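Homework-ish question, so no full write-ups if that breaks the rules, but can someone show me the predicted structure for this set?
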Amino acid sequence: MFVYRHKVNYYETDRMGVTHHSNYIRFMEEARVAFLDSIGASYSMLESDGYISPVVEVNGRFKHTTTFDDVIEISVCIKSATTFKLKLGYEMHCNGKLVFEGYSLHCFLDKAGKPIPFDDLYPQFRAQIQA
Amino acid sequence: MFVYRHKVNYYETDRMGVTHHSNYIRFMEEARVAFLDSIGASYSMLESDGYISPVVEVNGRFKHTTTFDDVIEISVCIKSATTFKLKLGYEMHCNGKLVFEGYSLHCFLDKAGKPIPFDDLYPQFRAQIQA
Amino acid sequence: MFVYRHKVNYYETDRMGVTHHSNYIRFMEEARVAFLDSIGASYSMLESDGYISPVVEVNGRFKHTTTFDDVIEISVCIKSATTFKLKLGYEMHCNGKLVFEGYSLHCFLDKAGKPIPFDDLYPQFRAQIQA
Amino acid sequence: MFVYRHKVNYYETDRMGVTHHSNYIRFMEEARVAFLDSIGASYSMLESDGYISPVVEVNGRFKHTTTFDDVIEISVCIKSATTFKLKLGYEMHCNGKLVFEGYSLHCFLDKAGKPIPFDDLYPQFRAQIQA
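A: Not a homework solution, just the prediction itself:
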């Protein structure tokens, strides 16, 4: 499984002393971009080919806190895929504990806003879908 | 229903030309804080009384995009409450369209990390629960 | 003098318990946008007319801390203007104290990246320059 | 000279298509923390020893834009030091170009808010000051 690492920055903490919950949504994006790179489906390339991929839904469940200087290990996998929607799953671990679980749902659009079947763009995704 | 307004800042947009999806999680927090203020349950007071209220889960569904200078109207309501968990619901409208729907789940802890029944802290919440 | 108000959000604090210093640069932008609106020079309009206005320099001096729920009063003025560069000054007060002083330097470019004399775009700015 | 690398995230861009200027202040912090680690003066340790180090001033000059997926190389050095204040300098390069120059000024305080001579905390800093 693909793993991405994020070291928590000081500016990502809040006055509760922990990583602010909204930042995990950003860590999901960082990990997703790195994951897509790793399977030859870079988001930069997608954009320069004239497509965009809006986020349709995000979900996050917070299990334990993290804070400044912690290294979070983020694993990403493809959960499921319909013709037009792709669901990615995320698990984040820190110091041996599960700190976060989440998912994101994505579609793909051309410049006119027309939905594109994701298999047309990224046939290699199918092989990555985990049961 | 309580409504909070957020005008989208330039720094909240991304290079797709729209408000970055992670910021809606922050707008939820802004609206939640204002909502709690409005029912006499300010988060500042909660903290100064020695309690914290971590976010247990967040969910967001993105319906339409918004961008710089748009005014987003965010309505907040209490969806449900068990002894230890409170679920808030959010709807965001902009220019007459529903742009976002989401919820957040919260618990309340004392300084030792012990869960506190939310009725003990905020008896007035019960009356606000919407069917 | 033009005054803009920003209420500090929870997500803008850090684990030192105060507003993270980087956010004041964002508050400067919020106040600048509101100031430009107030003198009929909205940044949205500038962009839709095909111009951009990159930030050339920012400077901030931190005098006192602020935190969650504080209301910061931000005054903005035009400090000076050469043919191609505009310098804005900012003072932020909170609870009667000066908490921040800063400035930003801006130029104006057309779509080809060519510098535009700011008087061509905003003749009304001249009248606003403060000694 | 110490060099830290930051890969620009999608959420760090704005609708001008480039990295939002406020984020460079955050990249300065990331690089500073890594620099301090590299000379045995970790900020985590400073905090756990009961000290804080507020930012007194920041300055940034923007030379060229960067965007999503760019790798920014950030060099950090100690510019000067008086008894109570430390000045760090930053240069950021991307694709062979200088994109940003800046500095930050810091003091050190104990828990009571009393300024601490930085030599008392970090005698090793003196040796690092660059002419």
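Now go work out the reasoning yourself. Hint: Chain D is about 20% helix and 35% strand.
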